[in-house]
TrEMBL record:
Pfam families: F_bP_aldolase. It comes from Alicyclobacillus fodiniaquatilis. Its cofactor is Zn(2+). It comes from the Bacteria. This is Ketose-bisphosphate aldolase. CDD domains: TBP_aldolase_IIB (cd00947). NCBIfam families: cbbA. PROSITE patterns: ALDOLASE_CLASS_II_1, ALDOLASE_CLASS_II_2.
């Protein structure tokens, strides 16, 4: 089907499941992720992040997502991940992205509000939803590095003010998750999440999904988490598949790549299962039973 327009997260927010937001770094990853999401009958956001953009892949990945998604029935969106500048938002809109994240969380609150407002005004003019971020999520992802001592949890009061002033369509919250793989077992602050959920009215986003135990992710779905980002475990699965595939098929690039794609798809199936509570299918959308 054509790329999904509008905010894919609203149904998830209302029915307590999450749309998996899966980072892609190559054309083969795009195809494998969409194939797995289609098999799972799950809407999906394919994220293009700063690592891929820095390597000149913004337009090529976006074009390939459009081409591939046309062959499947599930809703597919293209999401700009961790954008730090307004010009990149504009570039993404021209490239065909269907949602954008303005991550000005490293700036003082007022500057974060101002830059996010600017992105919202531009994106909403063409019907594209915007994700904002409040707080400092730890770990390393692409060009983002936040040490443990620099982590700042999202406060309820700041979340309420930020949503009201920016009019963002979704909000990434810092509640104990981290980018990259965890050095110790993560523990999400579900009480904080519940309070943010009760005081705001937009879908909430959990970054750093790789490595969070399934039971914690499932619990977060009850309190407004409607989008969960996965990157590190996907990359590791794909790269390890390439490594093992090259040993099994040393002179057969096609079979080697197919092997890597299957490894990636296995990981995608697992992460999609994390994003669902009990569900029934209703017109292609997932809902609580």
């Amino acid at each position: 089907m054509p790329l999904a327009a509008g905010n894919l997260l609203l149904d998830a927010y209302q029915n307590h499941y999450a749309v998996p937001a899966l980072s892609v770094h190559s054309l083969d990853m795009v195809e494998a992720v969409i194939e797995a999401a289609d098999t799972s009958n799950s809407p999906v956001l394919l994220q293009i992040g700063q690592r891929a953009i820095r390597n000149g892949q913004m337009q090529s990945l976006a074009d390939h997502i459009v081409k591939t998604a046309a062959n499947y029935k599930i809703p597919v969106g293209i999401h700009l991940d961790h954008c730090r500048t307004y010009p990149q938002v504009v570039e993404a809109l021209y490239a065909g992205f269907t949602s954008c994240m303005m991550d000005a969380s490293a700036l003082p609150f007022e500057d974060n509000v101002a830059l996010t407002q600017k992105a919202v005004e531009t994106c909403h003019a063409v019907g594209v939803p915007v994700e904002g971020e409040l707080g400092a999520i730890g770990g390393v992802e692409d060009d983002i590095s936040v040490a443990d001592e620099e982590v700042v949890y999202t406060s309820v009061e700041a979340a309420v003010a930020f949503v009201e002033r920016t009019q963002v369509d979704s909000l990434a919250v810092a509640i104990g998750s981290a980018h990259g793989m965890y050095k110790r077992a993560p523990k999400l602050d579900l009480q904080r999440l519940q309070h943010i959920y009760e005081q705001t009215d937009v879908p909430l986003v959990l970054h750093g999904g790789s490595g969070i135990p399934k039971e914690q992710i499932q619990a977060s779905l009850k309190y407004g988490i409607a989008k969960i980002n996965f990157d590190t475990e996907l990359r590791l699965a794909f790269v390890s598949g390439l490594s093992e595939g090259s040993r099994q098929f040393p002179d057969d690039p096609f079979s080697m790549m197919q092997f890597a794609r299957e490894r990636l798809k296995e990981m995608v199936y697992e992460k999609i299962s994390y994003c669902r509570l009990e569900e029934v299918t209703n017109g292609g959308a997932l809902q609580r039973s």
